[in-house]
Amino acid sequence: MPLQTHTVTVTGYGSGGDGITRLDDGRVVFIRNAARGDVLEVRLIKEQARSAHADIVRIIEPSLHRIEPDCRHYPQCGGCDFRHLTYDEELYAKLNRVNDALERIGGSSARVGEVLHTDRIGGYRNKAVFHADGDSMGFYKAGSHEVIPIDRCLLLKDDLNDAFESLRQDLHPNLRQNLRPNHCPNLSQNLSQNLNPNLNAGGEITLRSGRNGLDDPLEEELDGLVFGISGFFQVNTDAALILYNKAREYAALSKDETLIDLYCGVGSLTLFLGRDARYALGVEIAPEAVKAARENARWNGMKHVEFICADASAWESDLTRPDCIVVDPPRKGLSPQTKRKIIELSPGRIVYVSCDPATLARDIRELDGYEVAEICAVDMFPRTANVETCCLLKKRT
């Protein structure tokens, strides 16, 4: 017996980029690759008490926001979410995602007015992780570990696409050998050295571009500061500059003030903001990132910036009353212990950089004694559903 279909009109977007609508019984339906305003015939593929997921059977009437995807790998490849939308509509979806989280999860009246962005919606990524399954190389299919073979990715810088093409040609006869994880080959290196014949089929390889391409050391420059990017660094350098400038504006540090950066990684945000301060301290739990952060401070001649290896919620320093704390946590947001630590330190202002509006909104609600003074969103990852936010929190008066 064929599954029942429904005729629906898409009214908005979920946090993962799916189109959403409601059935007559009140359930919310999530529809991948749908556009606001689409009239669709859909088939439910996963049902729950209050929600369901559906596939498009046919487009009865396309939305004015719908366009023809410009990538032949879309939507099978899971790297993009919005190649079927105009860019203006993508920004609308991201703006609504942030503001919905602030209201519904955070209980905040703060609103973002626009999503800040660069003029480049393709060719911006300086890093890519490719997967091999023994027969082909590419990216994972959405929601699975099935490898979708690709030739070029429209999100990547040209040198990364060229490197991937060279890698594919070099490894084609040997794809059943594993690729060593997280290796960053330069074009000038012998790519065949990355093979390990003693491992089973399947694996991944990371390609990363520095500021002058793959033949130069892995470095990026932001507003006159140079960073080694052996550890975590933003994959969209131009958009990162927009985000970091907003964080610097919100921090508003003076030469007699102090800064603490929790989850500091390789110290890029610590140094970008800390150059305005009398003293800055970065806290990071990963020893290799702390080593890189100290090297970055040395390269940039910033002796007043220090880094310690410790958990964001449990560390000790002589700096007990910072003027400003900046946090850029992973997607899960701040732990309860970290929030208690921040409240105990009682900074005059908190700059919160977030990759997930939902956990940002939750943490805003739970940082007792603080309220949103300013907030913005930045499109760090065009053509995907991800959006970055930067928020200034000040003590309630």
Adjacency order of strands in the biggest sheet: 7-21-22-20-19-16-17-18
| CATH topology group of the largest domain | Rossmann fold
Structural class: alpha/beta
Roughly how much helix do the residues carry, as a percent range? 10-25%
Low-confidence region ranges:
173-201
Series of H and E elements? EEEEEEHEEEEHEEEEEHEHEHEEHEHEE
CATH homology superfamily of the largest domain = Vaccinia Virus protein VP39
3D shape = globular
How would you characterize this protein structure?
There is one protein chain. Helices cover 22% and strands 28% of the residues. It is α/β, with parallel strands linked by helices. The chain has an 8-stranded mixed sheet, with helices on both faces. Strands 1-5-6-4-3-2 form a 6-stranded mixed sheet. A 4-stranded antiparallel sheet has the order 10-9-8-13, with helices on one face. A hairpin with a 4-residue loop joins strand 8 and strand 9. Helix 1 packs parallel to helix 7.
Q: Concise description?
A:
By secondary structure, the chain is α/β, with parallel strands linked by helices. The protein has helices at residues 87-104, 158-171, 237-251, 268-274, 287-299, 336-345, 357-366, and strands at residues 5-9, 12-13, 19-22, 28-31, 39-47, 51-61, 115-116, 127-132, 137-140, 147-149, 178-179, 195-196, 203-208, 219-222, 225-228, 258-262, 279-284, 305-309, 324-327, 349-354, 370-378, 388-395. The chain is built from seven helices and 22 strands.
